Amino acid sequence: MQDLHTNLADLAHFCAAHGVEAWLVGGAARDLARGEVPTDLDIAVATDGYRLARAYADARGASFVGLDEARATGRVVITGAQPLTLDLAGLRAPTIEADLALRDFTLNALALPLNFWQQPTAALADGVPDAAWLDPTGGLADLRAGLLRPCSPTSLADDPLRVVRAARFCARLGVQPHASLLPLMLATAPALVNVAAERISDELLKLLDAPVSAPWLRYLDACGALTVILPELEAARTCSQPIVHFLPVLAHSLETVAALDWLLSGLFGERTTDLGDNTDDQAGEATDARPGSAWLPVAVQTHPGITRNLPFAETLAPLLGTPCGAGHYRRAALLKLAALLHDNAKPLTRVAHPDGTVTFYGHQSLGAERATLAVRRLRLSRRDGRYVTLIIREHMRPGQLRTSEVLTMRAVARLFRDLGDAGPDLLLHELADHLATRGPNLDLAGWQTHLAWVELLLQHYYAPPMTKRQPLLNGHELMAACNLKQGPQLGTLLHAIAEAQAAGEITTRDQALELACAMLASAGSEADTQNM
Predict the structure, then answer these.
(1) How many independent structural domains does the chain possess?
(2) Terminus-to-terminus CA distance in the chain, angstroms?
(3) 31 is in which domain, residue-wise?
(4) CATH number of the domain within which 88 lies
(5) What is the pTM for the complete model shown?
(6) Consecutive 10-residue runs of the chain (532 residues): their mean pLDDT?
(7) Could you tell me if 102 and 169 lie in one domain?
(8) From CA 166, how far away is CA 155, in angstroms rounded?
């Protein structure tokens, strides 16, 4: 906090020396009012913010970034032990009060004059008194009451993205929508089709990155916004499922996100006790799912004895808490997006058979194709998009392995080879999907067995790497020994030999040759049969 005061005091003196009024505004002002320390500061100035930012950066030897010269907005980046970013923007109205009234929600329409930091340091120790704030819309009262209220009846229409932002603020700040918000959300949601895809995906993924996101996805759906953003989900709304499921497809997908909320909150140790979750995750104790804990998945609400002491939690937490590669969004948020979309093709593949059974054959493959179009439309990075579609394409495989009569190490190795570093993520999705499928019909003993099965697979995944084995045969040796030419058949044989070697089924060159010869003989026999 002291560094923040020092930097703001310096900027306040600089602005005063140039005869410029300036105010701390936006999310930084809101966070300060909440008792938090902001690291990215929004500063409103009664002049050209672009030119003032450049002058301040030059005077302090800081970095200048020209954000938008036409809108008089510039950025100053101060490096050091605690880097600080200051965005300076000119007023959008004749006065600061009128500027604040143009903002989205009252809790973001607070301003603190920078001359507040020209006081002696001792006077700042007690925080910011209410009288120091400019608060024309009642934001302080709403912040303390935990309410999200629009600044005006046109707040959402002025920028329809605020529909998604409203849900994101509710999720991340723990506030509830004011009664005046819902009709504005309903009226404005259709206009989201006119908002740039990059802006929508940024807000959606920030919402998904919140500890508890599923209730606010449901809120967006109730407002008509969710399927404007993801039209792939509309047909899933009324798509019924076999009796093993207790929800239709769209509700099941949202319930899967709720299950991930619960699992990931335990994994990250995030505080959700104010929302009714009393799990002591440090001790691996059971959840006390009190009535009214509506954010919890139904399986947890109806089974007070359920636990979420996930295997390999110490390893999974940092994995899910970091982005894919150099991306901006945590894997946890992307995994929830995959969960939301994982059954999107079920309505297109649903077949009701004469015996009463219902199947969705191939929905995972078609769903991945449709999700590829969705993530492209949302302008996700190529790597983030591949992650989402990979989870969707492969989401049936863990269940198929779990219900197979014989679980071979070759099949497990093949799964993790195909998934790469997303293997553990897929297993977490499998657990969430299981909870969302069974719901009130969950068998606690079966859940414990499921956790033990996931632990078995993760033990294989995280087993200490063995010394890298040399291939038993290379391509040239196999070509010479079996009189083969380069081509797909050679690659298939080498791949099969490598798999068998990794599974410990073969250990010598002769055994590798025997396997290759057997495969060639089998292929030849099949060809002869087809030609008869």
Answers:
(1) 4
(2) 83
(3) 1-145
(4) 3.30.460.10
(5) 0.86
(6) 83 96 97 90 97 96 94 91 90 97 97 90 71 97 98 97 98 96 98 97 97 97 98 97 95 98 92 46 33 80 90 94 88 98 98 94 98 97 97 96 82 90 97 97 95 93 68 89 87 86 83 90 61 45
(7) no
(8) 11
